[in-house]
Amino acid sequence: MRQEGWDSVVDLIERVVGEDDLLPSVVTGVRTTVREVAGLAPADIAGHTRALLAAATRALAAGRGPTEAELSFVAQLGDTRARQGVPIEAVLGAIHVSERAIWSRAREVAAEAGIEARLLLDVRELYDDWAEAVRTRLIRAHRAADTGRREADDRNLTILRRLLEGGSAAALAAAEAGLPVTGGLWVLVARPGDAALEQALRDRAQALTGHLDGLLVGVLPQAPGTRTGVAAGLAGPAEPEELGTARRLALSALTAAESAGRTGVVHVADVAVLAAVADRADLSAVLTERHRPAWAALGSHAEPVALAVRAWLEAGREVAAAAERLFVHPNTVRNRVQRFAEVTGIDPYDTFGALNAWWLCRAWLVAAEGVEGAG
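^ that's the sequence the OP posted. Answer follows.
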């Protein structure tokens, strides 16, 4: 028989769960504490957390364990997180963070309401029994889905490698992956680690993605959008036989975007000059060797001058914009640009001179950064 006061404790739990600021606070805590889920959409975390809280509250009110319907939802959650690439340890960690926040708040409210700690403890013990059954089903579903995902990933990775080798076999690989063999395909390359970008690629219909040579690579039937907080290089459209070349171009676009501080999906055509510069280390070496005396002549002012010239050119030769970016007076920018022209003999106002000036300053700064890092 349910002991006296049980309903009052359950009512208290329902009030805590229903507080307007609780769920946003829990979601923030989860995303801050558990790194592996930080890339998931807050609405995704909030939706699953809300559903689990509602199920737990119903179980407490009825004094029972989880129903099969509740366990089916939990299994679906485990399957979803596995397919999103979230480890089971992270899933359980996120649930633990949520539980800790909720029961901490419940203890505060219970003390304020004069409810005996013993009653709250009894309710917590029932919750722990309910949660243990939930965790068991969650782990089982996650492991099953994770095994299936790894098998699918292995298969997809094999096909992806065949695709990116290009040639006649690529068309067969595209057909096997369910990608269109006519009309052109797109190749996207990014640094791994951005969970939101990886999930967005996995969710795209017919997209084939995987980690190759330390990079996230995707072959897509359509060009993706540009919304991402990191840089990603894009090339295409290209026929399956040309995907090897498209991959190299996408990597060049990524390198160029990173050198310019750009984020989002960047097509190689939009950074063609930067991509060409980044790919020609031999010409960069010739350029820096030619102007080695100029670097020496600038002495301790070499880096500030290079920064000023590069900022000025990237700001469309707007002195005020470059000065604001560098936190210096506009006259300082003018003087440094003039000094650069004097010691190098490069006219940064000329179209091709501006390209050489930007390239040289970039090479100087990269070299200086490398020396500092080595030190």
